[in-house]
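Q: Can someone sanity-check these two? First one:
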Amino acid sequence: MIRHIPSLLLRNNRAAAKVIIANGGVQKILSQSALLSTSSIRNTKPVHDVSLLNTSRGMTTAYQGIPGDGKHNSHLISDHIPFQATLNDGRRVEVDYFRHVEDDIEEDEYYAGMALMNLIIREGRSWPFDQEFETVDEWRGYFLSHTAFVVRAINNGMDSSKKDSSSSGEVLGCFYVKPNFPGRCSHICNGGFITAPRFRRLGVGRLMGRVFLRVAKDLGYKSSYFNLVFKSNAGSVLMWESLGFERVAVLENAANLKGLEELDTAYGYRYDLDKLPDNYRP
């Protein structure tokens, strides 16, 4: 039985989190490189197989939820997930659900997802959070409450710096799809996207965005709305607009981001999923 000590300690030279766990009374400190290392293992059985507007989840919003396994309504998207693709550098990857292996932190992609999330929080440039997640269950309540995915390497390759190699099974990015608002507005979904810094500029983000559109429509959402796309994140702005998202809101002085002297502007982006062709392929 793994018991989580609710703290993230120290950082390695990749600014990664180190997580301390106690397993049978023996503490193990694992660097992010270990957290982001995965191998082919079996999927766990879906816990949630209920309707999109299940009343037990009716008050879920973009920023809160019930800890899950990220496989909510997975039967609706079985034709598309797992989805295989080729990145800009020729590397083959798959978009798939998070793999969870109890009692094995090195193989458990929940830890990889939490480490990526906390890394982005520390960067302080693209997400609104300023406090890291301290336990896997806390992170699951946010990221895995509904439907969530990883981009997993199928074969070996190099990172975007061309200096460090990456291995098959490594997590290159992750994203979720869930209601942006509760109740009567829960047909509007939100997405959260993270590309591991060492795999940026390889097409991971664009792949996640395209798969997001396909699965969001098939999960029954009518539209998607992204609340906070920061003006200073030029790559994100360009990508969402190139994928057909419409800028429908401008919120000035919205975010106190690291590295900026003034408050940043946030854009709201909307996509009408009813207009996405039924034969759309990521």
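And here is the second, same format, sequence then tokens:
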Amino acid sequence: MADTYRPNHRHPKISIRKLEDDYVEFILSDTDASVANALRRIMIAEVPTVAIDLVDFENNTSVLNDEFLAHRLGLIPLVSDYAKYMVRPFEEFAEGQLAEVEFSLNVKCTEGRSLEVTDLDLVPDASHSVVPVTQALMKQQGGSVKPVVLLKLGRNQEIKLRAIARKGIGKDHAKWIPVATAVFQYVADISINQGLMDELTGAFVCYSCCC
């Protein structure tokens, strides 16, 4: 019985086709769809990121209520080289590690027209380097990046708050999902039966090629 038992060993291979700062495309071979789907689910739900989790409002006279604005703030993507060294609130952390980082937002419209409040108005605390992705891109590419609009303020309207960002995973809340989309598809394996091709007439072969 021992001689007939042969476990199905899998040795998946990954070949990178395209790699950018915010995009990756690769070929997964020598495995089946279950492994590909497992990778997809891990990318969505198990990769930790940093997002705004708690918002303390001091003043909000805009047309948006506190809960709606807090939800928008939570969906702003944050980036930092230090983020991977942060710990989640319930995890044990050593000296020098952070479990949360703070931002402040204080904007008042004093003009006669509406004023857009964007993620560029979020001011990170000086003790950390976690910033909205738009601010990071502005430093790299200049002023060609379109900011994320949070709300519009009318004359004499004001928004003042303190936001706390924490580390989490997409399984806990969608705001911690690190990807916009994560999908996979089968790569077609096309083979031509040369024996049948030889039996076809010249006219049929020409018609098939033209189609």
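A (reply): Looked at the second one. Helices lie at 33-45, 66-74, 133-141, 194-199, 202-210. Residues 207-211 have pLDDT under 50 and may be disordered.
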